[in-house]
Amino acid sequence: MTTKQERQTWSSRLTYIMTVAGATVGFGATWRFPYLVGENGGGAYVFLFCIAMILIGIPMILVENVIGRRLRVNAIDAFSDKLETRNISKHWIIIGYLGLFGAFGIMAYYMVLGGWVITYILSLITGTLDISTPIDKTVAKTFYDLHIGDSPIQVALYTLLFVAINYFILAKGIIGGIERAVKYLMPLLFLFLIGMVIRNITLPGAMEGITFYLKPDFSKITPQLFVFVLGQVFFALSLGFGVLITLSSYLNKEENLIQTAVITGFTNTIIAVLAGFMIFPSLFTFGIAPNSGPTLVFQSLPIVFSHLWLGKFFAILFFSLLLIAALTTSLTIYEVIITALQEKLKMRRSKAITLTLGSIFVLGNIPAILGDSVLKDVTFFGKSIFDAFDYISGNILFMLTSFGCAIFVGFVLKDEAKKELSPNPDSTFTRIWFNYVKFVVPLIIIVIFVSNLL
């Protein structure tokens, strides 16, 4: 049986929501969402994303919140303890361990993306990437190949710098470090985001990009695309790797989980949609194809900024926004593993932080970086090491963990889950949510899981 222990709680609902928003608004909203929109029909993808957030996003946020706050412990022990009438099998903690492996997998490549962003920021500041005059695709690709693909040592150093920034904040604790940092970083992110949106929607020709982005072409909506969008919601909301379970374990028992889940879902959707507004109008203004995939941010947007008045300033602002978004997410993903080490192994926080960040850097970040150079012939599932970390964590581990969470709530916790969710466990909303999570959500996750593997 898990021993309950006193732990801190968030200073207010606002700080918790800001922290969860920070956890969910990372590269998923600012890098992945825009390029997926560009590749998959513009407004059609955005339309489906908003529907998917309601169908799977908010219900699953509530699932993880219930699991996390129930015992107020780490993401492994959250699946343990006793019910009033029978024991919960000790094997359920496997779900918690799957989440930790998923967290490791995403951080293995996620931190490298942070290193890429720092490379661009410093290169723009020093003039190594000169966009004072218009550049073309060749210049943008040459810079990317030279400073990202062919410079593993430089990328490793900048990735290590990003890791060090995380270490400095994490060392101050969940409240003194993460909460305090998010209080400043999230308003700054919003400020930068609004500034970029205003700049882009006022460009001549911006309306064509806005039309592409917001007007759904219903002929492009297919069942396969909808399943794909449902899967993106898991990535966008940091579902399936213990983040929301860990963060909600610091919630007090009086907090309204339903309200916080709805606010979280809408906040993530709004920021993801705003991210598109700071990208697509400018692409269409300068005649750049929106379907350039993962390289959209790193190879296409520098071309755009080179055509803008004060382009260097806005480019630095944009990549700084990406870095802030990445930081607010990486802090919370690291915390999943750190909290587990502290509580499972009774490890000092400083040692848990060093072990977590150090092992991920050596066993994850470095191989991911070398996957495009020295280790380019090493593949898993036919993918490079970098892409394999993304594929295994996003398409396999996250799905299995989320499936386990839904089954755990619906078939193991049962009434206890409803009581944890609401002081009125027999209310219409609670009963609908519980039955939806118990019977419908697992089927949706199975469909996503199978389609990802095909």
Automatic annotation (TrEMBL):
Pfam families linked to this entry: SNF
Entry's InterPro entries? Na/ntran_symport, SNS_sf, YocR/YhdH-like
Major localization listed first in the record, in broad terms:
membrane
Tell me where the transmembrane regions lie: 14-33, 45-63, 92-111, 155-178, 184-204, 225-251, 257-280, 316-341, 353-371, 391-413, 433-453
Sorted alphabetically, the keyword list is: Membrane, Symport, Transmembrane, Transmembrane helix, Transport
Lineage: superkingdom:
Bacteria
Family in the record? Belongs to the sodium:neurotransmitter symporter (SNF) (TC 2.A.22) family.
User: What is the protein name stated in its UniProt record?
Assistant: Transporter
Q: From what organism does this protein derive?
A: Pasteurella canis
